[in-house]
Design brief:
Helix 1 crosses helix 2, helix 1 crosses helix 5 and helix 2 crosses helix 5. The protein has 8 helices and no strands. It has one domain. The longest helix is centred in the middle third of the chain and has 16 residues. Helix content is 53%, strand content 0%. It is mainly alpha-helical.
């Protein structure tokens, strides 16, 4: 696992935004850490903007966004909502490196986290990839802002 510093957390998010992050570095941890940084620095409109950032990045590194691969709306919005809740509970003054380490040590750091809330069939459906689909196993503690309105 990468040890994150405030500087490399910032750089990771920048490289996502400008699509210069090598595809091999776009891991589950990188998804979470970049989102953490964006929540802490560009919070407004992320539910709307992050999907486009991820889709553009996927295409820039040769990926596709279709019904079976690439961008996944339900997973993105669920993690974004959970990371917002995590950030809201952080002590004041904590730098991005320490925040990243704490985030990755939570259940969110496990790639299987969404399967505590969604059945595999529901989560990996075309409907869930294209749009928000509510959990069918357990309610989320934090719901996506667009759904909570």
């Amino acid at each position: 696992m990468t040890a994150y510093t405030a500087a490399n957390v910032a750089r990771l998010a920048e490289r996502l935004l400008d699509a210069s992050l090598p595809k091999a570095e776009w891991t589950h941890a990188a998804h979470l850490v970049a989102t953490l940084r964006l929540v802490r620095t560009r919070n407004d409109g992320l539910e709307r903007d992050l999907p486009g950032v991820i889709r553009a990045y996927n295409e820039a590194v040769g990926g596709v966004n279709d019904d079976t691969s690439g961008y996944h709306e339900t997973i993105t919005q669920a993690y974004l909502a959970a990371i917002r809740g995590f950030v809201a509970a952080l002590p004041a003054g904590l730098d991005d490196g320490e925040a990243a380490a704490r985030l990755l040590a939570t259940p969110l750091g496990d790639k299987a986290w969404p399967l505590a809330f969604w059945s595999r069939e529901r989560l990996f459906s075309v409907e869930a990839r294209r749009g928000w689909v509510a959990p069918d196993l357990a309610p989320l503690e934090h719901t996506p802002a667009e759904i909570a309105r």
